[in-house]
Amino acid sequence: MKLKSLLFATALGISTMAFSQESKKFGPPAGNALVGDTYGGGVASKAESKAISVDKLSKKLKKDNKKVENVAVKGKVTDVCDKKGCWLTIQTEDSSQFFVKMKDYAFFVPTALKGKNVVLEGTAERKITSVDEQKHYAEDAKKPQSEIDAITTPKEEIRFVANGIKVVN
Predict the structure, then answer these.
(1) Which of 75, 108, 151, 154 has minimal CB crowding within 10 Å?
(2) Does residue 150 belong to any structural domain of this protein?
């Protein structure tokens, strides 16, 4: 009986790994990212109506000791990971960007989200991003090698972990 259980667990593990590896080959999910589309856990209507701007988030992070949980933020998507749709960037008021990852790597977004306005619900914090991590994301974004090579110092930035994302216009 123990042997059957062990064989079953091994087979299940192998098939799960194979499926996981196979799904990574296909890239971001398909979709047009239309108004009202949601990703992940979605965004509560109460959170959507109380969403703050990126500028207000930045000020709140400075005031609240670098981390804010259960916050809704509205902004414009400037980039999406071309490989899997596993991260995106949001434009800030000073024309820079802040970085968004999906909570627990549990969902992905289509590249059609670029240029769309969204509401994100989740946790935000100020974080120091290493040179290697910055270069990794620049490579994912298919930036020119000269731009990747120009990354030489860690940077402090807003990082957001989204529980849900909703396209608003």
Answers:
(1) 154
(2) yes
pLDDT-derived band at 23 (thresholds 50, 70, 90) equals very low
Task: Please tell me the distance from the alpha carbon of residue 78 to that of residue 72, in angstroms, as a whole number.
Answer: 18
Q: What single string gives the DSSP state of each residue in 102-163? A: EGGG-----GGGTT-EEEEEEEEEEEEEPHHHHHHHHHHTT--HHHHHT--S-EEEEEEEEE
d(CA 19, CA 113): 26
Each residue of 71-125: pLDDT tens digit? 999 999 999 998 899 999 999 877 778 899 999 999 999 999 999 999 999 999 9
Please report whether residue 68 resides in a domain.
yes
Any idea what the CATH number is for the domain that residue 75 is in?
2.40.50
Decide if 8 is inside a domain.
Answer: no
The CA distance from 67 to 123, in Å, is: 7
Residue 141 is part of which domain span? 27-167
